[in-house]
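User: Amidase domain-containing protein. Structure?
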Amino acid sequence: MSVLFTSISETNPVKSGDAEALLEPLSLAIDPTESQDFQTLLAAVHDCAEGVAALPDYQPIPDQVKYPREDIRRPKADEQVFGQAWAHRFLIRGNAKGPLAGKSVSLKDVIAVAGVPQLLGSDIIPSWNPTTDATVVTRLLEAGADIVGTSTCENLCHSTSSYTSAQGTVENPHAVGYSAGGSTSGGAALVAAGEVDITIGGDQGGSIRVPASFCGCVGLKPTHGRVPFTGIASGDAMNDHAGPLTRTTLEAARCLDIIAGYDGIDDRALGSAKPGSTDFELAIQKADSLDGYKIGILNEGFQHSAVSPAVRETVLAAVQKYKDLGATVEEVSLPDHLQGPAIWTIQQRIAGAQTLLGQNTGRRGLYMTEMESARLPWTDDGFQRAFPSTKNVIINGLYLTQKFPDLYGKTANFGRYLSDKYQELFTKYDVLVMPTTPVVAPRHGKRELPLDSLKPSMGLTINTAIFNVTGHPALSIPVGFAPAKDDDQVMLPVGMQIVGGLWQEEKILRAGHVWERHYDWKKMQYSTNKN
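Assistant: Predicted structure:
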């Protein structure tokens, strides 16, 4: 018997017909002869739930004496940059003698900081106040970083544009009116412009790499589980990744050394190395060539119809420079790469809807119960204020669950197939390269009817989302400028994505670092006057 009870409490609210009402939406019924028994069992589980709800929660307790939070505030207009890049400003001073001493860090506004209201880019619910610090926050402070604020993220992280946040639009630091990418929009703008040294972002389909590409900074999505997701708002645990945005690959490597490693809480990170046991920074910092490297140009990543000629040529030119650095460069094909967006879409819609509805279970880790209490259950008022992408996730997820009951399992299985196919390529190649995004930053969209609102983000993750499905590490570095689609006088950054085998971050970081050491991406501009 799963529920032990001796008697039902006098205040128990379960009444006759409640069990039947629960099953009615599923077109299921209870035999009348069994109705009373199921009412009794439902009443018993209600009493059990009341007892569990009364127990104290078990959250990691941050050391706010050692790391006090100073001057927490919503920034005033004169404190904002690039539109609305900051969510909250504050200061937490890190260990003065750590390896990141003197470095300033912002956190995507989905990463828990005790005492700092979290907005999640939304106004569906009031901001909620975490009582714990995310694991990455604790590690950054111990390493000496000063955390100076949370940066704006897109509405519930459901966009790769930068105009969907309820807090306001984030402007591209290279051109007002153009997207900074999403959903780590504010953090990418802050890093690219030198307002902070590092941002920690979340990436469920490209949310680190897309804004890094649009803003001209380095964005690293590590191997799934390399960095514990403890204290970070989840989209789908199979797609959840956290990692750094920086201005150089070397700094991304240094940051990864600090935040990586299993924390004893998050089961995503069970396969990760012991904290402090990696030294990616030391491994790459003196590298000056790529002798012996085999680099694969992934044809499907370049030949997709969504990839603009300017982006394609800019990235291909950057890849060819690897030959001068000692690497062998050759084309490679994996047709199943093109299946990635569809597999990711189905997986994300189903799991994303379950997460939004409070039905995603089965993980061993930290559950942020305060956030769940604040945002659930959904109300029609909240749903009406949700951005169309969030409404679409819920509608799609419910439909897919009802009409295709085995489809989530199919996507998980096919995702494993895709991962195996990539792993086969990585027995022959050290890294694969392709454009991070198919275009440079587009103009901001507008909050209009759903299709118009979603259009600016469509197709941007054709080369990024697949690696959330497979879990492979992927690095975006800026490799030049190309003209905006609507104005060839506006030059915007182009990102090149470097992908490696599972747990092979060192290889992609080395490939990025050596390229950076020899070439200045800011001097490389695509010419619109080519013959």
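The chain has two domains: 1-55, 70-342+409-523. The chain has a mean pLDDT of 95.
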